[in-house]
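## Example pair
The file below holds two records. Each record gives the amino-acid sequence first, followed by its structure token line.
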Amino acid sequence: MATAQTEMTHGSAKGLDLLAPHDALRILAVAQAEAARVVETAIPEIAAAAQLAADCVAAGGQLIYAAAGSSGLMALADGLELPGTYGIPNARIKILLAGGVAGLSDMAGAPEDDEDEARAAMEGAGVKAGDCVIAVTASGRTPFPLTAVRVARAAGAKTIGIANNAGAALFELVDVAICLPTPPEVIAGSTRMGAGTAQKIALNMLSTMMAIHLGHVHDGYMVNVLADNIKLKDRARRIVMAVTGVSEDVAAQALDAADGRVKVAIVLAAGAENVSRAAGLLAQSEGKLRPALAILGKR
């Protein structure tokens, strides 16, 4: 069997342990940057995946991540931030990691091969038609995420696969295949480095574009943010001010009236007669702020 690119040796790694620290670190930094640049080659596939995920979430489906090891950490970082950043309900996001929560403090390798665990995790997540499953694996052949995809397909869910090797087995199973062909790692096989960096970027791009489709982004602002601490409440006020041009006091009053719902507060501050009217305009606009403001003649 041919050696996967993620297992090959890097051309600059020879004698790495003999180099001065700043020379070794320069090699590591350049390798990370090279891995990051690979993501741009997958933009068409990431765009398709984002639309697929948005369609599922808009229709009430779950967004389920399935991964192991370092790829699992990338999935975890992406999924955990979606409720706070874009107001997607926690109950609609599931993050399935090989080894479960215990794997976060003791990342053993064996659980990634456990197909039975993957089946049980997917059943526990209640995967069904209308859901979207995102499987992430650097090698593209890790049993846990591959089995999760098979279970998802059998349930009628949509599937997205992210891997770092061309021709990965995962790509034969999913609706949208995202290949991130990162160069060999400076530390051979240590895919927490370049492969993980590219996965993190691709996942962030995918979920951000999904949020844009869902109407949770307006002019670069997170207008569906869940403002549950001092920093985010201040951010919410600044968002309302920036989008509508009102004063800080007016923005704060609008947010209070809207119970902290930023989109509603923006439409209210932009001229809607009351909270009910603001919410109604948003419902009429499928939750998207720009068309709701257009009805008011503001954008």
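Second record, same layout:
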Amino acid sequence: MSIKMLFPILLLGLAVLTGLDSSAVAAVGQPEPWQLGLQDAVSPVAVEGQKFFTLLVWLMTAVVVIVLVLLLYALFRFSHKRNPTPSRTTHHTLLEVAWTVVPVLILLIIAIPSFRLLYFADHVEDADMTLKIIGKQWYWTYEYPDNGDFTFDSLMIDEDTAVAEGKKRLLDVDNPVVLPVDTDIRLIMTSEDVIHSWAMPSLFIKLDAVPGRLNETWTRIPAEFAGTMFYGQCSELCGVNHAYMPIAVKAVTKEEYADWVKTAQEQFASATMPAAVSVASAE
């Protein structure tokens, strides 16, 4: 194997290992130019998910290095110059057992923390509040059933508005989700038309919104992130405007959240109240 062939492999390995320390290159709640690795973990699920990601990267790196060393050794040791008369051996019991057992052990190393993380992210037993998320072509609708049962739509702001107001192009929305810190929040998701996917990297959430079905997960935002805006996007190909379904979540203190709920109940009351029905007069 020539140096030219090895260089891309070494460069990729360096990029992966550098990306393990994502805190140096990724901002909280949003992507950064030339970002390597994951965004900073915020929620308890995100912290565990990042640990699992780090385990997988080191495991993959170890496998690649071992396989590369074996290939280089085979090229060196069994070249025609050093081994002009090749062995006629067709079976080697120890070798065959090893290349069967080792992959099984690797899968077990991956499976155990994977299942633990899966069940940890599945649902929360005693949630403090519930947020219902409804995917639509092409925007999100949010319902707060525990805070007066109001509803509002969240649409991406246009590029001119984003530039004029100094907001993030393709990420900021007119009505962001507002969530209190230090609160166990149940998230339930569905869709009104096609399959969407509500993805929020810093909270380690990526869950499909499926028509006719409720999917559930949960999150908790620590108090130190009050005032932080978290960004995500729809991660399921849902139609021509799939790229224009951003998600914006603003974390606030519990006091600020209580004040926002009062304002939101008035602001979005017309969107949740049924239209008046005109009844014909008997006269």
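Notes on the second record: The longest helix spans residues 44-77. Confidence is low (pLDDT under 50) at residues 20-25, 272-283.
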